[in-house]
Amino acid sequence: AVLSLTGETVSIRGAGRTDSGVHAMGQVIHADLSKEWSPYQLQNALNAHLRLAGERVSILDVEAVAEFFDARFSALRRHYLYRIVSRRAPLALEAGKAWWVPKVLDHEVMHAAAQRLVGRHDFSTFRAAHCQANSPVR
């Protein structure tokens, strides 16, 4: 959409990545454009180009940021939501947005297991070879 709107090939950096089939709500990106745009005009123009291209994504907000802003490294926090629907009936409206488990789940056992994730942990084992994070501890 940026290329079709501006004619510029620009680098677009996101605050994070999603795995295939995962939805990103509130994803923050940044792009350095050569022309000055009002946030309102840029949002509407990008959404028009996305709509014409048949894309299923929307720009909800546009803000001008400082030169040093980086969507990935300036992020203050990230929030993840995982939805599991445990019932016999298959998903209809939630299809693709939740994991359907047609069996009864033991919530107490799941909660106890999840408690092992609470707190600070060293994720060195899960880091890519060229990971840019300052520390594997989260």
Automatic annotation (TrEMBL):
<keyword id="KW-0413">Isomerase</keyword>
<feature type="domain" description="Pseudouridine synthase I TruA alpha/beta">
    <location>
        <begin position="8"/>
        <end position="73"/>
    </location>
</feature>
<dbReference type="InterPro" id="IPR020094">
    <property type="entry name" value="TruA/RsuA/RluB/E/F_N"/>
</dbReference>
<dbReference type="InterPro" id="IPR001406">
    <property type="entry name" value="PsdUridine_synth_TruA"/>
</dbReference>
<dbReference type="GO" id="GO:0160147">
    <property type="term" value="F:tRNA pseudouridine(38-40) synthase activity"/>
</dbReference>
<dbReference type="Pfam" id="PF01416">
    <property type="entry name" value="PseudoU_synth_1"/>
</dbReference>
<dbReference type="InterPro" id="IPR020097">
    <property type="entry name" value="PsdUridine_synth_TruA_a/b_dom"/>
</dbReference>
<keyword id="KW-0819">tRNA processing</keyword>
<dbReference type="GO" id="GO:0003723">
    <property type="term" value="F:RNA binding"/>
</dbReference>
<protein>
    <recommendedName>
        <fullName>tRNA pseudouridine synthase</fullName>
        <ecNumber>5.4.99.12</ecNumber>
    </recommendedName>
</protein>
<dbReference type="InterPro" id="IPR020095">
    <property type="entry name" value="PsdUridine_synth_TruA_C"/>
</dbReference>
<comment type="similarity">
    <text>Belongs to the tRNA pseudouridine synthase TruA family.</text>
</comment>
<dbReference type="InterPro" id="IPR020103">
    <property type="entry name" value="PsdUridine_synth_cat_dom_sf"/>
</dbReference>
<dbReference type="GO" id="GO:0031119">
    <property type="term" value="P:tRNA pseudouridine synthesis"/>
</dbReference>
